Amino acid sequence: xxxxxxxxxxxxxxxxxxxxxxxxxxxxxxxxxxxxxxxxxxxxxxxxxxxxxxxxxxxxxxxxxxxxxxxxxxxxxxxxxxxxxxxxxxxxxxxxxxxxxxxxxxxxxxxxxxxxxxxxxxxxxxxxxxxxxxxxxxxxxxxxxxxxxxxxxxxxxxxxxxxxxxxxxxxxxxxxxxxxxxxxxxxxxxxxxxxxxxxxxxxxxxxxxxxxxxxxxxxxxxxxxxxxxxxxxxxxxxxxxxxxxxxxxxxxxxxxxxxxxxxxxxxxxxxxxxxxxxxxxxxxxxxxxxxxxxxxxxxxxxxxxxxxxxxxxxxxxxxxxxxxxxxxxxxxxxxxxxxxxxxxxxxxxxxxxxxxxxxxxxxxxxxxxxxxxxxxxxxxxxxxxxxxxxxxxxxxxxxxxxxxxxxxxxxxxxxxxxxxxxxxxxxxxxxxxxxxxxxxxxxxxxxxxxxxxxxxxxxxxxxxxxxxxxxxxxxxxxxxxxxxxxxxxxxxxxxxxxxxxxxxxxxxxxxxxxxxxxxxxxxxxxxxxxxxxxxxxxxxxxxxxxxxxxxxxxxxxxxxxxxxxxxxxxxxxxxxxxxxxxxxxxxxxxxxxxxxxxxxxxxxxxxxxxxxxxxxxxxxxxxxxxxxxxxxxxxxxxxxxxxxx
Length: 645
Ligand code: WTA
Description:
This protein is an alpha/beta fold. The chain has two domains: 9-498, Rossmann fold; 519-639, GMP Synthetase, Chain A, domain 3 (2-Layer Sandwich). Helices cover 32% and strands 24% of the residues. It is built from 21 helices and 31 strands. Strand 14 (255-261) and strand 15 (269-274) form a beta hairpin. The longest helix is centred in the first third of the chain and has 17 residues, at 109-125. Bound molecules: 5'-O-[(S)-ethoxy(hydroxy)phosphoryl]adenosine (WTA). The site of 5'-O-[(S)-ethoxy(hydroxy)phosphoryl]adenosine (WTA) has 23 residues, from helix 12, strand 20, strand 25 and strand 26. 5'-O-[(S)-ethoxy(hydroxy)phosphoryl]adenosine (WTA) binds at residues 261, 306-308, 383-386, 408-413, 434, 495-497, 509, 511-512, 518, 523. Its EC number is 6.2.1.1. GO terms for molecular function: acetate-CoA ligase activity; AMP binding; ATP binding; metal ion binding.
């Protein structure tokens, strides 16, 4: 165990860094006092525009509205590829590392241009046009990035669905945004195991009559069914297509993508992001937070199915003409040394991952790390959940050998890009703190009545003014967008997170304050898992809560009241776990199921989740007030029948 202590910026880092502390303070102040001047300058510096904008920003949080760079025209694919070709055509854009350590590929910006144009032409030939929605259900192969950029090139709106989601979840997402084309692969490959993506797609599409085209990448050559009127092979069609395709001029506020994410109620929401502001903030954060310099090899281990993969594998890095590494596999295959071996193999300079991965690798022992070199590493990053200081110090000492500052980046699918973060050359680090706001970001802490709290304090985290990569709407349901993010504390964007601010103004995110779980850095609504469980014939009622889990951060604990004629059994528990996997995906599978004759409810019938959380966390000494329960004896019964660990 390492001592938990503060880590001032080191000289070697400061000398190389784009931004030092004085510059951070000056730029931050300008970004708050004159946001339009600040962001206008950044938009000229970071992006290439076909037509300049008329107005930098306008927003009204009461209506959940924000526009950035209105009237400006640009294309994301042009910014991520074409404009680099004059000087960087033969530079590496993507390094792909396969699941199998013997497989890898290097793709230059010229090759990327060729691939993206060909696929864009294939989509066009199938009738996909500006504004149409395209679903991308892919493994971590370069074609996933080509697919996103091909959509952006022709103005189609992509909706990437994580390859681990079930056919049921895929179907819901395709229907919600009425996608009419799907891009997938025969199978994915993760940790040596095949993932049946085309089979899942076929199952989902049985209920999606509007899908006219499925583009299939041949990844493994595994056996799949074929529908001649709908399915086309990626390789056949792109080989035959032209490698030139003009980039569609898009308005800065035209939609770029939809990405579904869980909330505390109902079905996942299609978070809508637009073109100009999103690209600007993802590119700018990528450059400054990871102190990116030309030639650096940058690796973010996320999946493109999540926002981190969108902003920090594809759009941010490619917009900056960076070398972005894309990894098909998992950190523990063939063994727990894989990440560090990949770092040595490709001489990775920046490594960005999730706390859950760090904790899992830490649990395997230092030897897997120390047997590798890692001297290429300069900057480390984390994202997705609070990092416990012990894991932070291990990452810092063992992985980074005290050379590499750790960027603990706080943000959300809805924020589009990082919001609270250190900068390598500017910020003295405190393990467990995401530290200070990025340029233009105005966080605040509020009490339950929405009063802003000053100084060192704790409260609910809100953002008080618009930022460029802000969520624009929930696809097809703007009312839900207002309801979810802008109605709890009128006038502010509510994050759903709680946080503490210390005497130095540093933020410490404490986690969700709503009914959203964070399991291995994946967001899961408890309501979604409950809805899946009650679909099963044996289940009368279900209540799902989180509990602290050493590796995953949070685990999933389900209380289930069986139907009156059902006899609970270990077999039935197993069946229910598989049932949730089938309905949603393996990431939603409950760790524990507890059979409950009754759930603790108030007299008005509301389940008291606070009590369920305490019992699931084994904190039965601090249950709090149970006097408002309709039947307090339910609690004793639940305590007596806790799931065995
Ligand atoms: C949590 C992931 C603490 C937080 C980019 C947020 C974090 C949710 C951090 C968003 C961090 C993300 N420290 N908590 N550095 N980063 N979170 O939409 O609860 O998948 O609300 O976006 O993850 O998850 P999402």
